[in-house]
Amino acid sequence: MALAALLAGVLIPLGLNPFSQRVAAATPPLPSSAQLIDQRSFNVLDKVLPPSEANATTLFIWPGVTEESLKAKPFHVYDDEFYEVIGSNPTLTLLAQSDKDPLFHEAVVWYPPTDEVFFVQNAGAADAGTGLNKSAIIQKISLAQAQAAKNETNAVGKVDVITVASNPQVVNPNGATYYKGNVVFAGEGQGDSITSALYLMNPQEPYNTTVLVNNYFGRQFSSLNDIAIHPRTKDIYFTDTLYGFLQDFRPAPGLRNQVYRLDEATGALTVVADGFTLPNGLTFSPEGNYAYVTDTGANHGLRGWNYSDPASLYRFDVKEDGTWENRKTFAYVPSGVPDGVHCDDKGNVYAGCGDGVHVWNPSGKLIGKIYLGATSANFQFTGNSMVICAETELYYATFAATGPPIF
Ligand SMILES: *[C@@H]1O[C@H](CO)[C@@H](O)[C@H](O)[C@H]1NC(C)=O
Ligand SMILES: *[C@@H]1O[C@H](CO)[C@@H](O)[C@H](O)[C@H]1NC(C)=O
Ligand SMILES: *[C@@H]1O[C@H](CO)[C@@H](O)[C@H](O)[C@H]1NC(C)=O
Ligand SMILES: *[C@@H]1O[C@H](CO)[C@@H](O)[C@H](O)[C@H]1NC(C)=O
Ligand SMILES: *[C@@H]1O[C@H](CO)[C@@H](O)[C@H](O)[C@H]1NC(C)=O
């Protein structure tokens, strides 16, 4: 209801005013958890620091704001279009926290039958103690518990975080998505002998798994990273990239960094795109007409950063036959790298970046952020809410926008 009123406030004057759409749009009231960001307030700075001091790994704090003020009202409105995303009462709740162990990394998957959300530890991060000798773990929470805590900013301890023992184990899981009643994980592999593979996992006990594909014509993948299901064909698209190697738990690559497509019915495995530095997250627009791929090339894992490499989102047209064309640079992020990427049901594009989740409209205009002041590698819509991983922190956000249907 609140949203309907909000929309009417924005849209009806637009329709009636014959002179100017921009002037007519009545700005809705700013929710108490939101703040306006006027880019003109920092387009000219007295002092612009060199890359050794201001770079992709640093938070941008401009005159008039502090890190605390940016976090205090975490819904940052860069453009009026963001009001429709956040609605009248967006909330952000810290659900769980760890000291140093990056337990809340990626593979955020909502499983509606049990209303649970799965996620995984950061395989290969120094503080995880995983990688070559030990696999990252899978964990889950109950969405009902998160929902019950939504009016609190800090609900640590109120939500149970439960470890899931996949069997046979998904080794070094990274990305994942819901797929036909199961979760499909990209396992990065371990050392020379446990190759990288796509695993299907039953999301209920005994969490049994089946390997879907573990090679390309007899050659090992480098380390599979993330997965998306095409909404029309239900084909499985996934990225292969170098993080297992760059985090010292996989051999030097034997294949190009690229995006694959698996037709589960025929078993056909093909390549749909290459030309990336480190292809990472991927998703489709709600109708499946566009594919988005993030390139986290600037982040070389344990080898550090190269700021002239991509921190970019690319968009492709998806043709009727499922192949891709017309690569376009959709966005370049100033903070960290864009990692996990998802669309809402209106086609707005969300990506996990160095300071939280950034949101662009379908033409690539930054319209807002869910600001964490920390890196989010991935997140997932859970209806008109979202579970957000931020390495040592797990968040729950509620707002007006809704995720697209899952298959
Ligand atoms: C990036 O900026 C941070 C913070 O100022 C600094 O510690 C780091 O050394 C910089 N990185 C490089 C490669 O210069
Ligand atoms: C893995 O185990 C081997 C043999 O025990 C050891 O030499 C190596 O340091 C371990 N590597 C990591 C990353 O823990
Ligand atoms: C959260 O607060 C709103 C009013 O601000 C209230 O309507 C709602 O019931 C509360 N939800 C929970 C789960 O406490
Ligand atoms: C799990 O086991 C059940 C019972 O054998 C089987 O029907 C199902 O396909 C398995 N699921 C996966 C993902 O392996
Ligand atoms: C960064 O990447 C560019 C382009 O690939 C390369 O030319 C350059 O040598 C790299 N710099 C470092 C420090 O790795």
Automatic annotation (TrEMBL):
Designated name of the protein: SMP-30/Gluconolactonase/LRE-like region domain-containing protein
Signal peptide: 1-25
Domain SMP-30/Gluconolactonase/LRE-like region: from-to ranges: 225-384
Keyword Signal assigned: yes
Pfam families: SGL (PF08450)
Keywords, comma-separated and alphabetical: Signal
Cited InterPro entries: 6-blade_b-propeller_TolB-like (IPR011042), Oryzine_lactonohydrolase (IPR052988), SGL (IPR013658)
